[in-house]
Design a protein that fits this description.
mainly beta, 1 helix, LOR, Tubby-like_C, LOR_sf, Protein LURP-one-related 15-like
């Protein structure tokens, strides 16, 4: 990690998804070859931590939906792409809900035209114009850093490994201690979906 981790624990999705103390979390997110945007999230030993399943976009349901499940198949986060949003915004809700009281965060582009991806993340209780987290891509667009707000504090790093005919697309992720890695996974699966 380029910068030290923050001195506080940040439980946004669930406290169980925070690596305590000085331990960072390494994850591998694999995009499945099946139709849709489905992902499997494992630790470096190959243990499944999360799965992500997409719903089909139809005339009846014109929005894109992604569902983040824990290793036991329990729904943790429902990600919903905003309908016709020019700023590519996504909303995240607890479980399978879409109720305003279950809103966790909103993720949107920082500006309409971008040479490289810059996303702002606003937690549900944020009533200011200042984002809680920021995601910035490198110039080549195959890696991203997650920052706390507008600071220089990097709390997660994401590197994309392109797939081939024989291998699947993968994201190698390192999350700082005391940061909710379920939140980071939720952000990653909306990056190129």
């Amino acid at each position: 990690m380029a910068n030290p981790s923050p001195p506080f624990a940040t439980a946004i999705i669930e406290p169980q998804y925070i690596a305590p103390g000085r331990n960072h979390v390494d994850l591998i997110i694999t995009k499945e070859r099946t139709r849709g945007d489905n992902f499997t999230v494992t630790d470096i030993k190959g243990n499944i931590i999360f799965t992500v399943k997409s719903s089909r976009v139809t005339i009846v349901t014109p929005r894109q939906h992604l569902f983040l499940f824990d290793a036991y198949g329990n729904p943790i986060v429902h990600l919903r792409r905003a309908l016709l949003a020019a700023n590519d915004s996504w909303e995240a809700f607890r479980g399978k809900s879409t109720e305003p009281r279950d809103l966790i965060f909103i993720r949107k582009r920082s500006s309409l035209f971008q040479l490289r991806t810059k996303l702002n993340v606003f937690l549900a209780n944020n009533t200011t114009e200042v984002c809680d987290f920021k995601v910035k891509a490198t110039w080549f667009g195959h890696s991203w850093d997650v920052y706390i707000g507008d600071s220089d504090t990097v709390v997660a790093q994401i590197n994309k490994k392109l797939g081939t005919i024989f291998s699947r697309e993968k994201y190698l992720v390192t999350v700082s201690p005391n940061i909710d890695y379920a939140l980071v996974v939720a952000l990653i699966v909306t990056l190129e979906t």
